[in-house]
Design a protein that fits this description.
The chain has 65 residues and is mainly β. The protein contains one helix and five strands; from the N terminus they run ββββαβ. The relative contact order is 0.28. The structure holds zinc ion. One of its GO terms (cellular component) is DNA-directed RNA polymerase complex.
Length: 65
């Protein structure tokens, strides 16, 4: 997957966005410092999503600093 340098990661739920607000939790606390990408398409079937408490299908950062 291509990483877009201008994407921001939400500090609360780690969702990636190119906008100024998190599309998942509506937080505006975004960080440029993140790495790794997880594409969660079916959170109800994903153990990773369950661990991270992700319920909305989206693209997430693995780590946000
Ligand atoms: Zn968020």
């Amino acid at each position: 997957m291509i990483v877009l340098a201008r994407e921001y990661a939400c500090k609360k739920c780690k969702a990636l966005t190119t906008g100024k607000m998190c599309p998942v939790c509506k937080s505006t606390e975004l960080s440029k410092d993140w790495f790794g990408i997880m594409l969660i398409l079916h959170p109800e079937k994903s153990k990773v999503a369950a661990t991270l408490e992700i319920t909305v299908p989206h693209k997430y950062a693995l780590k946000v600093t």
